[in-house]
Amino acid sequence: MREAYQDKLDQLANQLADMSALVATAMERATKALLTADLSLAEQVISGDAEVDDARATVEEQAYALLALQAPVATDLRTVLAVIHAAESVERMGDLALHVAKTARRRHPHPVLAEEVRGYFADMGRIAVHLAREVEGVIRTQDVKRARALEETDDELDDLHRHLFSVIMDKAWPHGVASAVDVTLLGRFYERFGDHAVSVAKRTIFVVTGQMPGYGGSLGGEL
């Protein structure tokens, strides 16, 4: 009986990790669509978002069933609750990749990004995808040290996001208000994607240690 129960808990974690892999691929494709004005890739992300939504629904349904039928305690209860909260964050990551893809589609066949900011978004996309893939690994391994490292990587994304504003707020910005609005919104999508990845890492630390990090503003706080 206990072995079957543990298998269900492991299945929950694996499904969440699979969701993280899906959103990593979605953001990778969305970023490429953004940088290359590739409509086909944008459409793949848009149509594929339903798979992420369905995965979250399945994870939550199974998690609530475990709560109702097994009445888990201690580490098992932490695992189930963490999966429920993390699934919401991962789904939101998928939604943010979707927003990037929809922006690329809306402006097609014209490029969304001015040359001055393309490099920023190439780097932000690379970091965002890395974060999502690290989330997958953290969930599968429950590696606390690896989970803590995500915040430092997310800081790089935040720095790029801040630097974007210095570019579009410069008086010499020649591309008009519409372009500046696109850049502002897109930058926010990537920044929030990173924040959600860090949130999932915190949930993993909570499962392993029994304490939720970050209330003092850091993944690496006292555990």
From TrEMBL:
<dbReference type="InterPro" id="IPR026022">
    <property type="entry name" value="PhoU_dom"/>
</dbReference>
<dbReference type="GO" id="GO:0005737">
    <property type="term" value="C:cytoplasm"/>
</dbReference>
<dbReference type="GO" id="GO:0030643">
    <property type="term" value="P:intracellular phosphate ion homeostasis"/>
</dbReference>
<dbReference type="GO" id="GO:0045936">
    <property type="term" value="P:negative regulation of phosphate metabolic process"/>
</dbReference>
<comment type="subunit">
    <text>Homodimer.</text>
</comment>
<feature type="domain" description="PhoU">
    <location>
        <begin position="17"/>
        <end position="103"/>
    </location>
</feature>
<keyword id="KW-0963">Cytoplasm</keyword>
<protein>
    <recommendedName>
        <fullName>Phosphate-specific transport system accessory protein PhoU</fullName>
    </recommendedName>
</protein>
<comment type="function">
    <text>Plays a role in the regulation of phosphate uptake.</text>
</comment>
<dbReference type="Pfam" id="PF01895">
    <property type="entry name" value="PhoU"/>
</dbReference>
<keyword id="KW-0592">Phosphate transport</keyword>
<feature type="domain" description="PhoU">
    <location>
        <begin position="122"/>
        <end position="204"/>
    </location>
</feature>
<keyword id="KW-0813">Transport</keyword>
<dbReference type="GO" id="GO:0006817">
    <property type="term" value="P:phosphate ion transport"/>
</dbReference>
<dbReference type="InterPro" id="IPR028366">
    <property type="entry name" value="PhoU"/>
</dbReference>
<feature type="coiled-coil region">
    <location>
        <begin position="2"/>
        <end position="29"/>
    </location>
</feature>
<dbReference type="InterPro" id="IPR038078">
    <property type="entry name" value="PhoU-like_sf"/>
</dbReference>
<keyword id="KW-0175">Coiled coil</keyword>
<comment type="similarity">
    <text>Belongs to the PhoU family.</text>
</comment>
